[in-house]
Automatic annotation (TrEMBL):
Span of domain Aminotransferase class I/classII large: 27-377
UniProt protein name: Aminotransferase class I/II-fold pyridoxal phosphate-dependent enzyme
Protein keywords: Aminotransferase, Pyridoxal phosphate, Transferase
Cofactor(s), names only, from the UniProt record: pyridoxal 5'-phosphate
Stretches assigned to coiled coil: none
Entry GO terms, CC: cytoplasm
Record organism: Algoriphagus formosus
Alphabetized InterPro entries for the sequence: Aminotransferase_I/II_large, Kynurenine-oxoglutarate_AT, PyrdxlP-dep_Trfase, PyrdxlP-dep_Trfase_major, PyrdxlP-dep_Trfase_small
Family: Belongs to the class-I pyridoxal-phosphate-dependent aminotransferase family.
MF terms (GO), sorted A to Z: kynurenine-oxoglutarate transaminase activity; pyridoxal phosphate binding
């Protein structure tokens, strides 16, 4: 019997495609966003400890209480708001699950959801699976800041939610206090919820501070804040994330979560709970990545690419339109095959594949690997 796809236009993600191409051509993989180094041995030992001590059965559906408690205290330390660990915090299997459950909890057939593009590729499928209608709003050219006039003009009586991302993937833009105030004004007196993707919360540069929606009194009343321990502690393969939301929103969130994964790996939750008690374990992450961003950007200056250093995340975008008119997908393929360096074509972050001649690199790699990649990228003009 023929199967009618619920996502007929969705194929294999560009991240999987480029990582496989990097493997096939023995290229340095600066495409998919995963660190090229291991986590703190102390954290790894804590996982082994709790595994050996028998913490290997189902965790509570909403999370291990010890992790909920320490995450509440951490949130108060970072954002001056202490969520109730029992009613406002859920531990889930990665931020992607958190985003999916949040969207599913509020979006019904016919509802419109605003997405700011370029955007991470999991947002739109989650909206479509709930029968929602994605409304795509381009970010400003150049710095990828938010065009608030365009956002406001896109709101209709059908608008149910807006998905935001700060620090932003792929551009690295970090929201300002003005952005938060504009968003608050947008949803004020309207039945609009916010799904906030904040997985790079601890990776900001040049003394910028990540401003979570949790720290904004008005916004947090209508927001699901989604985060990831994997990005912060270099353990993306663990797929452990969280969601923080007001009790009435969290109640609906958990109704979805309990039938998606129900619970998240138990010994890792206990390990993270103990590890997070030392603030320096997460407060040092920005400095660690700033050194890598600066190192990578210094090397990029010799390639002919144009760029502005990322404000946050562990990605660096670069423009090549002044050098060639070839598509970003073609360039990414040539770079992988001929220069042996894999990147992501930024057109993959647009619903209609708009090509603004940008590519994205992940600099969460060992310095030696970055140095080798930068040396290879000096041959870029040769393949254009």
């Amino acid at each position: 019997m023929p199967l009618r796809s619920k996502l007929p236009h969705v194929g294999t993600t560009i991240f999987t495609v480029m990582s496989q191409m990097a493997k096939d051509h023995n290229a340095i993989n600066l495409s998919q966003g995963f660190p090229g180094f291991d986590s703190d041995p102390k954290l790894l030992e804590l996982v082994a400890k709790y595994t050996r001590e028998g913490f290997n059965q189902y965790a509570p559906m909403s999370g291990v209480p010890a992790l909920q408690d320490v995450l509440s205290a951490k949130t108060a330390r970072c954002h001056d708001y202490e969520p109730d660990p029992e009613t406002e915090i859920s531990i889930v299997s990665g931020a992607t699950e958190a985003i999916f459950c949040a969207i599913t909890a509020v979006v019904k057939p016919g509802d419109e959801v605003l997405i700011l593009e370029p955007a991470y590729d999991s947002y739109e499928p989650a909206i479509l699976l709930s029968g929602g209608i994605p409304i795509h709003i381009p970010l400003k050219k150049g710095d990828f800041s938010i065009d608030w006039e365009r956002v406001i003009s896109s709101v209709t009586f059908k608008t149910k939610a807006i998905v935001i991302n700060t620090p932003h993937n792929p551009s690295g833009y970090v929201w300002s206090s003005s952005d938060l105030d504009h968003l608050a004004q947008l949803i004020r007196d309207r039945n609009i919820f916010v799904i906030s993707d904040e997985v790079y919360e601890h990776i900001t540069f040049d003394e910028r501070k990540h401003l979570s929606l949790i720290g904004h009194e008005e916004l947090r009343e209508k927001s699901f804040v989604c985060g990831s321990f994997g990005k912060t502690f270099h353990v993306t393969g663990w797929k452990v994330g969280f969601c923080i939301a007001p009790p009435e929103l969290m109640e609906e969130f958990r109704k979805i979560h309990q039938f998606v994964t129900f619970s998240t790996v138990t010994p890792i939750q206990h390990a993270l709970a103990e590890y997070l008690k030392t603030p320096s374990n997460y407060e040092s992450v920005s400095e660690f990545y700033q050194k890598k961003r600066d190192f990578f950007c210094q090397g990029l200056k010799t390639t002919g690419l144009e760029f502005s250093p990322a404000q946050g995340s562990f990605f660096q975008m670069a423009s090549y339109g002044h050098l060639s008119d070839i598509s970003d997908k073609e360039l990414a393929e040539r770079m992988t095959k001929e220069l042996k360096v894999a990147c992501i074509p930024v057109s993959a972050f647009y619903h209609n594949g708009q090509d603004h001649k940008f590519i994205r690199f992940c600099f969460a790699k060992e310095d030696s690997e970055l140095q080798e990649a930068l040396g290879r990228l000096e041959g870029l003009k040769r393949i254009l």
